[in-house]
TrEMBL record:
Organism: Paucihalobacter ruber
Domain of life: Bacteria
Record-linked Gene3D superfamilies: 2.30.30.30, Nucleic acid-binding proteins
Gene Ontology CC terms, in alphabetical order: cytosol
Keywords annotated in UniProt: Cytoplasm, Elongation factor, Protein biosynthesis
Ribosomal protein is among the record's keywords: no
One annotated GO biological process: peptide biosynthetic process
Entry protein name: Elongation factor P
Residue ranges annotated for the Translation elongation factor P/YeiP central domain, each copy included: 67-123
Alphabetized GO MF terms: translation elongation factor activity
Localisation per UniProt entry: Cytoplasm
Elongation factor P C-terminal domain: residues covered: 131-186
Length: 189
């Protein structure tokens, strides 16, 4: 058993008869009243995000997980196929287990959390902090429209749509922050 002082991003816990991964947390010590921890939890089975507050010292049940490096092979509908880079075993996961499935390119290396308590079932997929993708379609920018931080939608090679600055053109490679799905910078070859 762990307590609220052990809460950190990426920790998997058992809560309300389900397994949740902590994606955000904040320790709050108000001037009046007891301290508490405000958390944002994502269910690893359904993908639903839940806001929850734990009082300080609250006991939480930690789930023991292992992390393994997998390479994304391909997708069929809502089924995604991955290969373990160490022993070449392949697994399939549903779209709901992935944090940002629209930003996943074939050959991308990801980290998969595996539950060691129930015989090794995969829990969730952790994407790299950012990915580099090529813009396949975007409208040309309008000259003189740069007084404000104007953006335009751009479709990248995986099919995801990302808002980018007006100077981005088709064929440019851009770095995208996977956590928020936002444009970060243009990448020079």
């Amino acid at each position: 058993m762990a307590t609220t002082s052990d809460i950190r991003n990426g920790l998997c816990i058992r809560y309300n008869h389900d397994i949740y991964k902590i994606i955000e947390f904040l320790h709050v010590k108000p001037g009046k009243g007891p301290a508490f921890v405000r958390t944002k939890l994502r269910s690893v089975t359904s993908g639903k995000v839940l806001d929850n507050t734990f009082s300080a010292g609250h006991k939480i049940e930690e789930v023991r997980v292992e992390t393994h490096t997998f390479q994304f092979l391909y997708s069929e509908g809502d089924t995604f196929h991955f290969m373990n880079t160490e022993d070449y075993n392949q697994i399939t996961l549903q779209r709901s287990a992935l944090d940002a499935p629209d930003l996943l390119k074939e050959g991308e290396v990801v980290t998969i959390l595996i539950n060691t308590e129930d015989g090794g079932s995969p829990l969730s997929v952790e994407m790299p902090a950012s990915v580099v993708l090529e813009v396949t379609h975007t409208e040309p920018g309008v000259k003189g429209n740069t007084a404000t931080n104007a953006t335009k939608p751009a479709t990248v090679e995986t099919g995801a749509i990302v808002n980018v600055p007006l100077f981005i053109n088709e064929g440019d490679k851009i770095k995208i922050e996977t956590e928020k799905g936002t444009y970060k910078e243009r990448v020079k070859e």
